[in-house]
């Protein structure tokens, strides 16, 4: 099936590549970066073309949704077209995006639909798209009552997996709350099975580059230097608060240790950690921040297994009983 | 005095919750010489919250009093590391400014 929401021929066509996952995000970012310069422009005859898509993961699913969300909410286009085949519709269904996509096409209340989404347990584990809300108890209650109990159920008797996933989630949540401005626009999605877990988070708010540059220490640094620093210990936009600047460093250490993947994209640059090898690259501009994690679970490690944490802080005496 | 943090778990990653727990422990310390904190069902805690709760208490009480007056029960090994990281960061920051 192909949907055409407008009969006019499009003048601007954003074509999404055939493969959209953690290995193939560069051309996508280049192609969609134009939308961030079109806020309020209501450009006519625009089309988002998803018909080439053959393979997509949680990261790709989330980014396509965020592009649609941004374009609609920021009124980038007037009467846009969106083209897709059954493959895309099946994927939206699998990852519980249908209500959200429909909400944007039909201009319904997306916040309400996000709140209705649940954790799906099939042969694999899927965390449906989830807003990371700083104000109110929704995210906290969701994590406590739905998400974490399901993680505990799915990975029962595998405490290292539960610990590793929980640590990463915990630091991702704090990091998005620290940097994002508009709470409802930070979305997390995840899936996994007994062998791996993938987590993607994205927002189109205040990116980590802009956020860190609000600290005078980093205000004059180029974006590549800032993104490289962002995963170092003690680097935070909010010094002299309880923010430690440890979150992304901890995630990077865990990912390096288990030879997973950790990608951090923001405002035209990215930190890429693929299987323990890291690099900083330039990318197409993304307003906000994207975090992508792929954790192999066969040799999951808790913090006590990782050299960066093992036998550290011995001088601090605490009466653990 | 015993404080059970189970109602805040299994993941403590919210600064409002962190502040509630800090106030709870502070109140406990004002009413009792020793506060016993049960972490049985806490899987993990964001480093922010570890610093917000235990880092702050460590600086306020000092290392000896913290050891004597705060007893942490049933913590898993990762949570122990997170708590120590929060305290270490609070100490480092305090040294940097003094």
SSE diagram, text form:
The complex is a heterodimer of chains A (321) and B (98).
Chain A: E1 12-15, E2 19-20, H1 26-32, E3 43-44, E4 46-49, E5 55-56, H2 58-73, E6 77-78, E7 81-83, H3 86-94, H4 98-106, H5 110-116, E8 119-121, E9 125-131, H6 138-154, H7 159-179, E10 187-192, E11 196-202, H8 208-213, H9 223-230, H10 247-258, E12 261-266, E13 269-274, E14 277-282, E15 289-296, E16 319-320
Parallel strand pairs in A: 1-4, 2-5, 3-6, 4-7
Antiparallel strand pairs in A: 8-9, 9-10, 10-11, 11-15, 12-13, 12-15, 13-14
Helix pairs in contact in A: 2-4, 7-10
Chain B: E1 2-4, E2 11-12, H1 15-31, E3 35-38, E4 44-45, H2 47-61, H3 63-69, E5 70-73, H4 77-97
Parallel strand pairs in B: 1-3, 2-4, 3-5
Helix pairs in contact in B: 1-2, 2-3, 2-4
Molecular structure report:
Chain A has helices spanning about 25-30, 60-75, 85-95, 100-105, 110-115, 140-155, 160-180, 210-215, 225-230, 245-260, and strands at about 10-15, 20, 45, 45-50, 55, 75-80, 80-85, 120, 125-130, 185-190, 195-200, 260-265, 270-275, 275-280, 290-295, 320. Chain A is of the alpha/beta class and about 325 residues long. Chain A has two domains: about 1-115, Transcription Regulator spoIIAA; about 120-310, Heat Shock Protein 90. Chain A has an eight-stranded antiparallel sheet with strand order 8-9-10-11-15-12-13-14, sandwiched between helices. Chain A has a three-stranded parallel sheet with strand order 1-4-7, with helices on one face. In chain A, a hairpin with a 3-residue loop joins β8 and β9 (about 125-130). In chain A, α2 (about 60-75) runs parallel beside α4 and α7 packs antiparallel against α10. Chain A is globular and about 65 Å long. Residues about 1-5 of chain A have low confidence and may be disordered. By secondary structure, chain B is α/β, with parallel strands linked by helices. Chain B has one domain. Chain B has four helices and five strands. In chain B, strands 1-3-5 form a three-stranded parallel sheet. Chain B has a two-stranded parallel sheet with strand order 2-4. In chain B, α1 packs parallel to α2 (about 45-60), α2 crosses α3 and α2 (about 45-60) crosses α4 (about 75-95). The interface between A and B is large, with 37 and 48 residues.
């Amino acid at each position: 099936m192909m949907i055409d929401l407008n009969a006019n021929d499009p003048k601007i066509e954003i074509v999404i590549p055939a493969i959209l996952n953690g290995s193939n995000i560069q051309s996508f970012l280049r192609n969609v970066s134009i939308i961030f310069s079109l806020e309020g422009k209501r450009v006519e005859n625009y089309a988002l073309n998803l018909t080439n898509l053959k393979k997509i993961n949680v990261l790709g699913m989330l980014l396509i949704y965020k592009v649609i969300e941004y374009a609609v909410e920021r009124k980038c286009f007037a009467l846009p077209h969106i083209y897709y085949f059954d493959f895309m519709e099946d994927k939206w269904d699998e990852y519980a995006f249908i209500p959200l996509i429909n909400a944007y096409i039909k201009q319904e209340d997306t916040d309400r639909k996000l709140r209705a989404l649940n954790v799906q347990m099939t042969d694999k584990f899927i965390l449906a798209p989830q807003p990371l809300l700083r104000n109110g108890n929704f995210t906290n209650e969701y994590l406590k009552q739905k998400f974490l109990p399901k993680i505990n159920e799915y990975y029962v008797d595998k405490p290292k997996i539960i610990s590793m996933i929980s640590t990463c989630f915990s630091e991702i949540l704090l990091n998005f709350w620290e940097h994002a401005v508009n709470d409802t626009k930070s979305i997390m999605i995840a899936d996994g099975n007994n062998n791996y877990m993938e987590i993607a988070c994205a927002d189109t708010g205040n990116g980590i580059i802009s956020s860190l540059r609000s600290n005078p220490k980093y205000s004059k640094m180029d974006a590549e230097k800032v993104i490289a620093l962002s995963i170092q210990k003690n680097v935070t936009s909010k010094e002299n608060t309880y923010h430690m600047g440890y979150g992304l460093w901890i995630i990077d250490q865990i990912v390096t240790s288990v030879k997973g993947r950790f990608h951090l994209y923001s405002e035209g640059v990215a930190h890429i950690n693929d299987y323990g090898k890291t690099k900083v690259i330039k990318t197409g501009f993304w307003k906000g921040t994207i975090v992508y994690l792929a954790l192999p679970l066969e040799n999951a490690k808790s913090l006590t297994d990782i050299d960066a944490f093992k036998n550290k802080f011995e001088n601090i005496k605490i009466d653990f009983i | 005095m015993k404080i059970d943090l189970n109602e805040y778990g299994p993941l403590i990653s919210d600064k409002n919750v962190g502040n509630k727990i800090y106030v709870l422990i502070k109140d406990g310390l004002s009413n009792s010489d020793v506060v016993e904190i049960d972490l049985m069902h806490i899987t993990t805690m964001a480093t922010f919250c570890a610093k917000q709760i235990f880092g702050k208490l460590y600086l306020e009480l000092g290392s000896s009093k913290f050891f004597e007056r705060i007893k942490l029960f049933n913590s898993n090994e990762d949570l122990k590391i997170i708590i120590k990281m929060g305290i270490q960061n609070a100490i480092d920051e305090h040294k940097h400014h003094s």
